[in-house]
Known about the structure:
The chain is α+β, with helices and mostly antiparallel strands. The protein has a single domain (2-39, 46-200), classed as Sandwich (Jelly Rolls), CATH 2.60.120. The protein is built from two helices and 13 strands. Strands 1-2-11-8-13-6-3 form a seven-stranded antiparallel beta sheet, covered by helices on one side. It has a four-stranded antiparallel beta sheet with strand order 7-12-9-10, with no helix packed on it. Strands 4-5 form a two-stranded antiparallel ribbon. The longest helix is centred in the first third of the chain and has 14 residues, at 20-33. It is globular, with a radius of gyration of 16 Å. The protein binds N-(carboxycarbonyl)-S-(naphthalen-2-ylmethyl)-L-cysteine and fe (iii) ion. N-(carboxycarbonyl)-S-(naphthalen-2-ylmethyl)-L-cysteine (MD3) is lined by residues 108, 110, 118, 123, 133, 135, 166, 168, 172-173, 175, 177, 179, 196, 198. One of its GO terms (cellular component) is cytoplasm.
Amino acid sequence: DRQELAAGALVLRRFAQPSMDALIRGLSRIIRQSPFRHWQTPGGHRMSVAMSNCGALGWVSDHRGYRYQQIDPNSGQPWPEMPQAFKALAKSAAAEAGFDGFVPDSCLINQYEPGARMSLHQDKNERDFGQPIVSVSLGIAAVFEFGGISRGDRVQAVPLQHADVMVWGGPARLRFHGVRKLSDAEHPVLGRRRINLTFRHAG
Ligand code: MD3
Ligand code: FE
């Protein structure tokens, strides 16, 4: 099941289902090595979403700003290696949207507990906006907000469920987006949370 929200914005419903066991095993290994933590925004606020990363580059935020870096600041070590099953899923989803040869070097792992949200923003910390972004939703359902190229443009509400995958490229790459405050629910495998994997070629 395939839905084009706008030019360059593709939703692939349940696309991650065949890889689910490997994704969950990979996730638990990563989180043992680099546990979820709440970054501070450059303005000094604690983010409601807890984050970790795997792959060569990890997205971090602190009083100095947002950036990608090779070292997990909490451990002083490189981020956990990106599991093969993560790379393979990101690559095949990107190919579905016409981005053959996508090789992610970064996977940001966002954990939303009930009440957590992500306000409307653009992803602008990557070097090459010609590279797509692939995102994978796991756990309880959330409402994704998909806006336009200006902050004030109207937003489309997109319900996202366990195993749904989205690919953002080309004209959609710099559109505003966010996640509505998560309602309380329980997923049989992941419990009372939503996890989102975001694959990028950041370097
Ligand atoms: C649309 N995460 O980490 S993923 C983020 O569900 C982020 O955790 C959300 O936005 C989440 O930056 C949404 C989907 C996504 C990612 C990047 C995009 C949608 C996008 C870039 C451009 C347009
Ligand atoms: Fe984003």
